[in-house]
Structures are given as C-alpha cells and as structure tokens.
Amino acid sequence: MNNPKKALVLGAGGFIGSHLVKRLKDEGYWVRGADIKKPEYSQTRADEFILGDLCDKIHCHKVLDVPFDEVYQLAADMGGAGYIFTGNHDANVMHNSAGINLNIAGIAQKVGVGKIFYSSSACIYPEYNQLDPENPKCSEESAYPAAPDSEYGWEKLFSERLYLAFHRNYGLNVRIARFHNIFGPNGTWRGGREKAPAAICRKVAETKDGGEIEIWGDGKQTRSFLYIDECLEGVRRLMESDFTGPVNIGSEEMVTINQLAEMTMKIAGKKLSIKHIVGPLGVRGRNSDNKLFAEKMGWSPNQRLEVGLTKTYEWISDRIKK
Q1: Known catalytic residue: 152?
Q2: Fewest 10 Å CB contacts: which of 20, 135, 169, 266?
Q3: Is 0.70 topped by the overall pTM?
Q4: CATH code for 6-182+226-249?
Q5: Is residue 9 classed as helix, strand or coil in its secondary structure?
Q6: Where are the domains of the chain?
Q7: CATH class of this structure's domain 184-224+253-286+304-321
Q8: Tell me: the pLDDT tens digits for 32-67?
Q9: Which residue in the list 83, 118, 125, 152 is annotated as catalytic?
C-alpha cells in the first residue's frame, strides 16, 4: 500500500491498545505505538514502538512529533476494582492520567493531527443512577449532575471536558467513547489490576472440580462486558464518522457477577461453590445504553457474552497450564 495512513496508539503496551495496533495494521495503517511498557502477552505489531513515560511532556513531544492522520489516546493509570476502588492509588490515578491527557491534548493541537480518539469510561456515570442493580441508568446525557463513584471516574470526566474544550477553542478533531468493561485474551489476569471476567476465569481455571471460589460482595451487583473485537469495531466506526461524542461503547447484556461466575464454570465444565467475601465493589449496577451509538453509527455490539468469555477462559487456562 502506497503512502498508508499514519496512526499513533498511546497505551499500545496495554490490553486494548495492543489489540488496536493489530487491527490498524490489518487495515493497512503505518502505526507507531507508545507506552511505558511493551505488551506483556504478545509481540507488538507496531511499525515503531517508543518506550517512555507519557507523563513527561518532553517525551510526549518525541512521541507526537508529526501530524499523524489519527491518534488514539488509551494511556492511563488503571486497573480493576481491586486497584481502582480501594482508594490506595487515587493520587497516582488522577495525577498520572490527567498529566498524560494535558500533555497530549496540548501537543496534538500544536502539531496538528487529523483526528484524536480519547477512551473515557463508564465510571464517569453518577453513582446515584446505579444504586439499583436491576435498573441502572447510563445514557450519555445522564452524566450530569456529576457524581462518579471513584477518582478514576472523576479524572476521566475531567479529561472528556479537556478534549471537548480543545475541540471548541482550537478545532481539535476529537472523538470520545465511554468504554464499558472491555475484556478478552492478552489482558491482565492476575496481580491485582485484572478486571472481573479475567479474575473469575483465573479462579475457575485454578480450582479443581467440586472446589470453591471467592467473589467480592454478594455477587448480585450487575455489569455488562464487551469483547475486545466488538470494542475495536465500535472505535473504528466512531473514528470514521463525523460524530464527536461522548458515546457509550459497551454491551447491553447485563449479568450479575454470580451469573458471570456460573457461566465461566459452565464453560470450564466444573461445578464449584461460591464463597462471598468482603472486597471493593464499585457501583451496584451498570449496563451500557447503546441507543445513541446505534442512532449515529447504524450498528451496535451483538455478540453474546458467552462467546467472548469462552475465548478468554481458554486463553487464561492455557497460561495457567504453562
């Protein structure tokens, strides 16, 4: 392909970022990846990978030194409930992630980029709309009055507003999506930063038939989980559109955490008991509202949770066996 489009993926060493690099390469892009680390579970497909801390503005100037056609800003200090909701990492989460976005927004505007995508989160939605696990409200307009349940959510909301301000004041061509629990192979599955699907897959894979696994809380809290391939399809459709957002990218198949565990046991062919223990939980209920995305893009995710969970369980089970 002559003169392919050039894309920059920030956070290319992470789960979603490493998959996005592959997707862009498959579409014919020339891709530069940047992160503080390279992908842990696979070789990067990036044409060029720059290691370094994106909190450092001088380093960011080296990473974003030309007017890329597309920039994807996924870099953040993040993790699952065991990292985000303990409160022990709040200062780092806010300082590091906000620092990255302040650097990137300013440099992208000065260098001039075709489009820039920012990955926000469902964690920006108000806790008061997510107290009923059966009927959470997560439509885009419900974000205000703001009341996220974590500093992670507050930082994401601030950075949404940062990019939108650069869009209004400087014409920065922005796209913003609020991710809802993205999961799949090649993601963190141990160590404390893993999210619920990976944590449960690991626990089930490590436990012998007839054994017991632990679940934080009563397991009746609800969530929806989106497989990585559908997440990337949503991102690419948003980038190809003329819609700025913010818009949800997530699944509408809501399950309890107990149901997620039972589904994983079924995939594994195991009968296990669940012991409910005290642990960080986040909001009581959360589910993606896809009406706006479907209206703007003419598409919405439709893969059943069990399909992606099967692929994820098999990948994690293979890691444990090695």
Answers
A1: yes
A2: 169
A3: yes
A4: 3.40.50.720
A5: strand
A6: 6-182+226-249, 184-224+253-286+304-321
A7: alpha beta
A8: 999 999 999 999 999 999 999 999 999 999 999 999
A9: 152
